[in-house]
């Protein structure tokens, strides 16, 4: 614990107990309650290695290999983004538009570790969820998560955005948490973030390249009355609303996260 507090930056001091507990394979309460506990040499080496990697910017989730999201314990790897709490708003927006107990077809574009797709699949077992990603490595992590959680109403397909939807019948809802950070933005060099896959974070000079591509192609894969929902940056709400309206979607609206930031924008394909 002294080594962790000494080597971690002040901003990460609160993670010391979590890091040591995870490296020792025990709970944080055990570390705090029994500071005199003897640590064997192998566990000590693992602790010191994890402390060094965390101090160098590796996300804690990459060290522990897991992250909780919407009540699910998910495997994460350097091939995937670490799920963020604010993305739970995207899941809630989807569930608000999918009545419980009714069948539905949902596509999650750029699923990563499967966080959004699997949260939807668990909450709406009647739904058929297609999870796609252009990263084969990320898609394999999502498959493992689905298998471990016993979620059988999810399919997986390799492909870039709507290209992965070729040959599929129309969907009731398409959802995506795409890359939306502008290239060169300082956030890309922040602690933890700099170790995550850049292609899952950055999207052109305005951060809108991926959102623009999805807005153009997704509506034709929706049934009449179907919804497109996108997560985006806090300053991008107006731009995303304009993109969806330009593609003919109606009832376009933006939802704010718990911090009051515009975070999720959606629109509906007009009914036939």
Describe this structure in words.
There is one protein chain. Helix 7 (115-123) links the parallel strand 3 (104-109) and strand 4. This protein is 34% helix and 21% strand. The chain is built from ten helices and nine strands. It has helices at residues 2-7, 16-24, 28-33, 41-55, 60-64, 88-96, 115-123, 136-149, 209-217, 237-246; strands spanning 66-69, 72-75, 104-109, 127-133, 154-158, 171-176, 222-231, 250-256, 262-268. It has 272 residues and is an alpha/beta fold. Helix 6 packs parallel to helix 7 (115-123). The model has no long low-confidence stretch (mean pLDDT 93). The protein has a seven-stranded mixed sheet with strand order 5-4-3-6-7-9-8, sandwiched between helices. It has a two-stranded antiparallel ribbon with strand order 1-2. The chain has two domains: 2-56, no CATH class; 77-268, Vaccinia Virus protein VP39 (Rossmann fold, 3-Layer(aba) Sandwich).
A few lines on this structure:
With 272 residues, this protein is of the alpha/beta class.
CATH class (first level) name of the largest domain: Alpha Beta
Helix-residue proportion: 25-40%
Please report the distance between the alpha carbons of the first and last residues.
63 Å
Total discrete domains: 2
Mean pLDDT equals 93
User: Which secondary-structure class do the elements indicate?
Assistant: alpha/beta
**Biggest sheet overview:** 7 strands, mixed
Weakly predicted, low-confidence segments: none
What would you report as the Rg, rounded to the nearest angstrom? 20 Å
CATH third-level topology of the largest domain:
Rossmann fold
């Amino acid at each position: 614990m002294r080594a962790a507090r000494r080597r971690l930056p002040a901003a990460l001091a609160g993670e010391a107990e979590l890091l040591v507990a995870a490296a020792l394979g025990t709970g944080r309460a055990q570390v705090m309650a029994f500071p005199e506990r003897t640590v064997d040499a192998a566990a000590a080496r693992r602790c010191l290695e994890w402390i060094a990697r965390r101090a160098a910017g590796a996300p804690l989730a990459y060290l522990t290999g897991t992250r909780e999201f919407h009540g699910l314990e998910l495997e994460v790897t350097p091939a995937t983004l670490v799920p963020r709490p604010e993305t739970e708003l995207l899941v809630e927006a989807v569930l608000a538009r999918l009545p419980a107990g009714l069948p539905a077809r949902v596509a999650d574009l750029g699923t990563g570790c499967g966080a959004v797709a699997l949260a939807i699949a668990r909450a709406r077992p009647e739904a058929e969820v297609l999870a796609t990603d252009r990263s084969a490595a990320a898609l394999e992590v999502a498959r493992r998560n689905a298998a471990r959680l016993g979620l059988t109403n999810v399919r997986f397909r390799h492909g870039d955005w709507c290209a992965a939807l070729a040959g599929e019948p129309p969907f009731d809802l398409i959802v995506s948490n795409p890359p939306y950070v502008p290239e060169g933005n300082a956030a890309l060099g922040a602690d933890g973030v700099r170790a995550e896959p850049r292609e899952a974070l950055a999207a052109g000079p305005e951060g809108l390249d991926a959102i623009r591509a999805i807005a153009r192609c997704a509506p034709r894969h929706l049934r009449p009355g179907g919804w497109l929902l996108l997560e985006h940056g806090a300053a991008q709400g107006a731009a995303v609303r304009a993109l969806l309206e330009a593609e003919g979607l109606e009832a376009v609206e933006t939802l704010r996260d718990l911090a009051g930031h515009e975070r999720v924008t959606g629109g509906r394909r007009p009914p036939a």
